[in-house]
Structures are given as structure tokens and as C-alpha cells.
Amino acid sequence: MHLGFRLRAITLATAGVFLAACGGGGTTSANLASADKQILRANNGTEPNSFDPTQQTYTYERAVGIQTYDSLFRAKADASDVEPLGATSFDVSPDGLTYTFHLRQGAKWSDGKAVTASDWVYGWKHFLNPALAAGYVDPFFDQTIKGASSYGNVDVSSASAIDAYLNGLGLSAPDDKTFVVQLDHPAAYFKWVATLWMAVPLRKDIIEQAAGGAFASTDATKAEAWANNASTIVGQGPYKISEIASKDHVTLVPNPNYWATAPHLQTITYYEISDGNTAFSQYQTGALDMIGVPLADVTVVRGDPKLSKEAKLIPTLSQYWISFNTTKAPLTDKNVRMALSKSIDRDKLVNDIEHGNGKSLSTFIPKGMNGYDTSDNAQSFDPAAAKKLLADSGKAADLAKMKLLTRNTTASKTLNQFLADQWSTNLGVTIQLDVIDSKTVTRDIRKGQFDIYGLDGWISDYPDQQDWFDIFVTGSCHNLNWGCLSNPAYDDLVTKGDAESDKTKRAQDYSQAQKMLIDNAVVAFMYQPYEYDLVKPYVQGLTVTTTDDQNLPGDGRYNTAYITQH
Fold first, then answer.
1. How confident is the model at residue 159 (pLDDT cuts 50, 70, 90)?
2. Model confidence at 5: pLDDT above 90
3. N or C: which end of the chain has fewer CB within 10 A?
4. H-helix or E-strand containing 526?
5. Minimal CA–CA distance to 460: which of 542, 369, 526?
6. Which candidate, 12, 561, 538, 535, places its Cα nearest to that of 238?
7. CA distance 339 to 336
């Protein structure tokens, strides 16, 4: 997920210790608060645009979606593999084209009805309905599932065209407990796609009842009527929605029919406070139990004897970088790009601008997932080497004509001025900031109308390298690969790694691809951001993992959390 554009969560890791319980300790009858006190109050920041998980895109939407619905699998706590949720196991055909998911026996919806494979087929077709334009269909599903590649070309005004498309998808239910997905081509990473929270079952009877009966596949309004009322949002996740207070909060309570052990938390209230300072104030007064610390208050928290003990600095599975328009001279020269990269003191950036909330990283894959490797020092800070590279290129004068595209926000202007100052001090080149409104910046980078753009970045959709390397393939020009550098050898390695079922060979392919990105300075890799959260000491048993949502540490496994007496 591109940082700053969409999407899900800033995924979390805990510096290599993934089963870290915030506060530590186990549940005991001596310190466990009574059931009526098992309430967690957290700030989710923004009201979800939809409570239909298939239509969710952003972190604040997923935070609700993962509580109310189970996907087939989820990432293990150490991010090493997937583990069962809606399915208990899966088989892959020898040709890698058929995934057979064996669904959990005894799984029930929150109203007590049994979950069947036909519910999974219906839910995935609902998600893949082009008329609903779900944000996560492309590229995870339309580029992998058999028959789905024409998703973007279906006439959404024609019910017959939509129905023909949906009926031609490689989705089937040979029996009530078997869900089969056929792929268009081998995709060794598809088990990770099956962990995405929007790929869930849905109840056809409930959706049609809320719509007033059966409806045409072109009718997006009727297709979503069920998701507007807590009483018709019937899921099969660990919690269910009991109250929707628009623009204020959402209240969740345990799903009494969930397959796992009943949780201690009896109420989860997600508040929708967009102003970080307001949330910080409410945390201080005790109205909230968990928040993300506003950047402006980081120093305050660190200097406070009480708050500093409640703070959690958590590395995220993300990376920031500077994008270069490689179609424009002198940025067509990799030595010029490398000079720009090597002249930035990343440690100073993290410490002075980000208040220590991150770690410098001049390679691609962040710490906490497979592929993390800092052995390639090609882009590391070295002002002398940077000056030599630029001098040898003979293009310093041309570089001085370049501009740094900057969003008109305080954070972006502050950070980008730092970059410009670094280039002036360490490289001897003055590069002006081109400050414009955020909407125009987004439009311009998508059209390739920029020289240098930053900071750009990525957040994992799931902890597998495939989710990262396709950013820079040739086909992603003006989509994710804003700089549009084309390298057929890189493309071949990524394609090979995506299809390779042998883990060792797959890792080797991606490792070579990462080296190409670094050594060719396709972008200038900067740092791995950290998340700085506050959690009340009476909130115990939070298992922080790489798939937790932004500023909600442990939310993927709230069944382990509890409130102690206080």
C-alpha cells in the first residue's frame, strides 16, 4: 500500500519479537477486572466509509472489518506463514493453479446459522462485482483468479455483462465445507492474498432481505443497503457491531457463536477523533485507553515520567523513499540519482525531523519480514562519494534545474526542506521545493509530471515480499512506479519469484531484484518508520503483530487482551 494514498494499516512489528504482550503478565482472578469493566476504548481516527468489509480500503475501515469477519487465513504472529481462520487448511494442485480451501467445521454466523462454502463464493463474487468498484480487487484478485482479468473492462451498466463475468470466475463450492479458487497463472503468494480482510463470506439472504428482495447486479445501492445498519451486519468474526454512532464511534461486542475461546473484552469502542491533539487530551483524562501520539507531542510524552512508561515505540512494516523521474535528464543517469541518495544523512532525518520515530534504511525490504538485508551499502550516506559521482557525471548544473515536488502540508514541507538542505550542504546543489496542494501532487505523479518526489513509500498489505517487488516493474509505470524506470531483467526476476513455489529459489530471485533496485538507485531509500503509541497500563495481554492496524496495537488478536483492576 502506498503511504499517503490509501490504504490499510501501518503494519506493526516489535523489533523481531512478534509475541510481545504490552505490559506483560498473564490473566489471574486476582487482577482481572470484572466483566462489566472489560471495556477497551481506542481512537480509530475516522468513520469507516463502509461496514461491508469487501468495500473497505483504509486502515480505519479494516480495524472494524477484521473484528466482524474472518478471512480464510491470517499471518502467524511471527509473520513466518499463514494460520487458520475461516479455513483450517488448503491444498494446491501440482500445476499451482487450483487452491482448495477446507473450511472450518462448526463455524457459525453471529446469528447462529452455519457458514457454508456457498457463502464464500457469494462473498467473493460480491467483492469482485465491477459495479461496486471495490478498492482491493486490483491487482490482488483480478490479476490472479481465473476469468477475473477483464474486471476493468466489464460494462457496469449491463447486468448480463456483469453476471457473465461473475459466473465465469474460478470460484466454486463442491460441498458445504470446500471452497475452491482456480487461478489464471501460478501465484505462489496466493495464500497471502487469502489473508486479506476483504476476501470474506457474505450472507445472500441477509443482503437481499435488506435490499427488499433480489436485485440486479448493476444496483450498487441495493447491494450495500445491508451494511448501513448494525442489525443486518451479520458476520462470522470474533466480534459483532452493536452500535453505529455516525461520526462519533462504533461499538463492538463478542460474537456469541464464534468458534474460538470467548474473549475477556466485552466491549470495544472505536472512537472517530480525527484531531490528534483532542485524542491526546482524552487519553490524559482517562477517556481513551489507546492512541497514536501526535508527532508534535512525542517530545512531551518522552519527557513525562508517567506517560513515557505507557509509550510503545513499534517498528512498522513500511519504508519511505524518494522517487526520481527517470525519463527526465539528468535523472536518467543512475550516478546522478545515486549522488542524490548518498548525500542524505538518514540518521539525522529520523532523529531531527521524525523525533526518533524510525530507523534509517538505505535498502528496500524493512526489518520484520523475509528479505530484510542491509548488506548492500550502495546508497548509504557518504557525502564525499556523492560529490564525486555528481562531479564525474558533469551534470551538476542540470541537476540544479530540478524541483522537489512537495505536498502543501506542514509535515511534507518540513521534511522536504530538510532534503533540500542536505543536498545543498552535502552535494553543493540547490534544488527548489515545488509546493502545491496534495490533490494536484497526486495527479501530477500519476501523469509523470515531476522531477523529484518525496517522501513516497509503501506499507505491507501482507508480510510477503511479492507485495513489494511489483511496485517497480515496468507495467507499474504511472501507477506505483512513478519514476518509470524500466528494467526487463528486474521484471523477469519478479515474475519468476512470484510463480516460484520453492521458498529458497523464490528468496534468491527477490534478493537479486532488491540489489538491482538499490544499485541502480531506482529510488533513494530513506527509513523505516516507527509507530509511537500510548496504551494504559491496565490494558494487558496485547499481542502485537505485523498485521495490526495503525495506532491499534494488538487489534488482530484482541481475544488475548484483557483489562486489569485499576
1. very high
2. no
3. C
4. strand 523-535
5. 369
6. 561
7. 5
Provide the 3-class DSSP secondary structure of residue 530: strand
Residue 79 CA to residue 87 CA, distance in Å, equals 18
**Grid cell locating 117:** 462454502
Amino acid at residue number 157: S
User: Higher pLDDT residue, 495 or 479?
Assistant: 495
Q: What is the C-alpha separation between 112 and 255, in angstroms, rounded?
A: 10
Q: What is the DSSP string of 63-94?
A: HHHHHH---SEEE-TTSSSEEESSEEEEEE-T
Cα separation, 506 vs 271, whole angstroms: 42
Residue closest to 404 by CA, chosen among 444, 462, 374: 444
* Whole-angstrom distance, CA of residue 525 vs CA of residue 468: 13
pLDDT digits (tens, 9 = 90+) for 348-406: 999 999 999 999 999 999 998 889 999 999 999 999 999 999 999 999 999 999 999 99
State how far the Cα of 249 lies from the Cα of 233, in Å rounded to an integer. 16
* Residue 131 near residue 169, CB atoms below 8 Å: no
Between CA 102 and CA 292 the distance in angstroms is: 38
Check: CB of residue 130 under 8 Å from CB of residue 218: no
Please tell me the distance from the alpha carbon of residue 247 to that of residue 466, in angstroms, as a whole number. 36
Strand positions, DSSP E, 249-289: 249-254, 267-271
Are 11 and 318 in contact, with CB atoms under 8 Å apart? Answer: yes
Residue 480 contacts residue 432 (beta carbons within 8 Å)? no
Q: Please check whether residue 47 is in contact with residue 246, taking contact to mean a CB–CB distance below 8 angstroms.
A: yes
Could you read off the pLDDT of 210-260 as tens digits, one per residue?
A: 999 999 999 999 999 999 999 999 999 999 999 999 999 999 999 999 999
162 and 154 Cβ atoms separated by less than 8 Å = yes
Q: Report which DSSP code applies to 226.
A: G
User: What structural domains and CATH numbers belong to the chain?
Assistant: 52-61+68-228 (3.90.76.10), 318-530 (3.10.105.10)
Q: What are the φ and ψ backbone dihedral angles of 296, each rounded to 5 degrees?
A: -70, -20
Q: Which residues contact 193 (CB under 8 A, 6 or more apart)?
A: 140, 141, 144, 187, 199, 462
Q: For residue 118, what are the contacts with CB-CB under 8 A and spacing of at least 6?
A: 173, 176, 204
Please name which of 320, 308, 240, 273 lies closest in space to residue 66, comparing C-alpha atoms.
240
